[in-house]
Amino acid sequence: MNNFSSINQIDQSLVAQVRDVVDGDFARRIGDLGRLVKIEGIAWDAFDAANLESSAEAVAELLRETGIFEFVEIRRAELDSIPGSPAVVARRAAKNGKPTFLLYAHHDVQPPGNLDDWETPPFEPTLKNGRIFARGAADDKAGIVAHLTALETIRKVLGDDFDLGISVFIEGEEEAGSRTFRTFLDENRDVLAADAIVVADSGNWTADIPALTTTLRGLVSQVIEVSTIDHALHSGMYGGVVPDAMTAMIRLLATLHTPDGSVAVEGLVNGTASPLPYSEAELRRDAGAEEPLELIGSGSILDRLWAKPSITVIGIDGQSVALSSNTLLPKVKAKISLRIAPGDEPDKALQALRAHLEKHVPFGAKLDYLEIETGKPFKADASGWAQTLAETALQAAFENETALIGIGGSIPFIADLMEVFPNAQILVTGVEDADSRAHSPNESVEVASLKKAMVAEALMLIKANELG
Question: What residue spans define the domains of the chain?
Fold first, then answer.
């Protein structure tokens, strides 16, 4: 790429023009968002798959209406002969040496959860206090309409014959683990290949301060089973002498943290996060962690959230209280979720976790390893032209400096994007903020922030059309 100097500034006349176009299209796009969130497209086996088909068709039709693509299709991949959920792809080839952008979002959503916890119907978009409430309003159907608005804006500003290449990938199973994601990338490599990839599935620092997500923690999930005896025993007759599996498991799991709650596993990477202002009071408010509850770990709050490992025991299979009896359990399972810092490797972290468990398993109990799940962490290329361009566009749209943030959670499919398209720069963006409550009841998107995100993406694509 050349013409790099043009990505460090954006003329105010262009910003004003793009705002006018987005303003003129905004009511229609909010209507599109409303229609999309009414479709209960959930990629879990317990829900009606026909809704996912309807959701994919609705997205495909909206992309066709832009009139800029050579084709728009609904495609699937298979894994172990089982078809995945429907995804929407589209492509417009680059011309005259211009770059190609891949725009990613997902049209599937989380289940609504307990309906009694919703203040409004989860699949009926409701505008209240400047926010649209509905399942998927933020995660991630707002990402879809942001892409659509940016595409419509670039066409209106540059004309139908612009040179920038555009590919679109709207996934249909992200909330169910992206089971066929890697296979889909491999099978559709020619359609999805790009110089820069915009993953619209994250958030901003606040509703007024834009952000790029430049780091993500990785994931190591390990199910273990601890065994002590070969059959259940009466706890009155043998308790106090024979160790039961639950006691052994509890003692083992307790070794995973130091007294202050830091991760005790040796050999894991620890880093530092961006020095953004985030107080303990703000954390407690966002997390619902009221005093006198003590916080755990060491280092700054953002270090602990974004750049240090964390361990959570997310499940134990022993015996329920309702079915409990005076019995020494012979076997107990537990699922350990280890988030690893950017710069760490899942295989290395898994071996460190196992070494710790083997060192600390008590009473000579037997330790077995069962299911595992891994996902690589992510760290963006801060020197890339795409990140510079995105920061400039976000700042122009929000009129605030772009924050470079991390996320403590993991998006494992980003590692797949990096492996399949190693030369592509990845931009993790989004429209969520701390009040969006993605995955939770009363999910919402702030309307004014959504409009600014649309302006930012349109500016980024229009300026990218100058490169080459």
Answer: 4-216+377-464, 218-278+297-375
276 burial level (CB within 10 Å; 0-12, 13-18, 19+)? middle
* Full pLDDT tens readout for the chain, 468 residues: 566 556 788 999 999 999 999 999 999 999 999 999 999 999 999 999 999 999 999 999 999 999 999 999 999 999 999 999 999 999 999 999 999 999 999 999 999 999 999 999 999 999 999 999 999 999 999 999 999 999 999 999 999 999 999 999 999 999 998 999 999 999 999 999 999 999 999 999 999 999 999 999 999 999 999 999 999 999 999 999 999 999 999 999 999 999 999 999 999 999 999 999 999 999 999 888 999 999 999 999 999 999 999 999 999 999 999 999 999 999 999 999 999 999 999 999 999 999 999 999 999 999 999 999 999 999 998 889 999 999 999 999 999 999 999 999 888 899 899 999 999 999 999 999 989 999 999 999 999 999 999 999 999 999 999 998
- CATH 3.40.630.10 assigned to domain 4-216+377-464? The reply is yes
Q: How far apart are the first and last CA of the chain?
A: 5
- Give the residue among 27, 28, 50 at the shortest CA–CA distance from 40: 50
- Residue position matching structure tokens 């997390």: 287
User: Token pair 């800029």 is at which residue?
Assistant: 68
Decide yes or no: CATH 3.30.70.360 for domain 218-278+297-375.
yes
Q: Which two structure tokens, joined as six digits, stand for 23?
A: 């303003």
Q: CB within 8 A of 443, min separation 6: which ones?
A: 122, 133, 134, 135, 136, 137, 138, 139, 436, 437
Report the predicted TM-score, pTM, of the whole model to 2 decimal places.
0.89
- The DSSP bridge pattern shows strands 211-216 and 444-446 to be unpaired
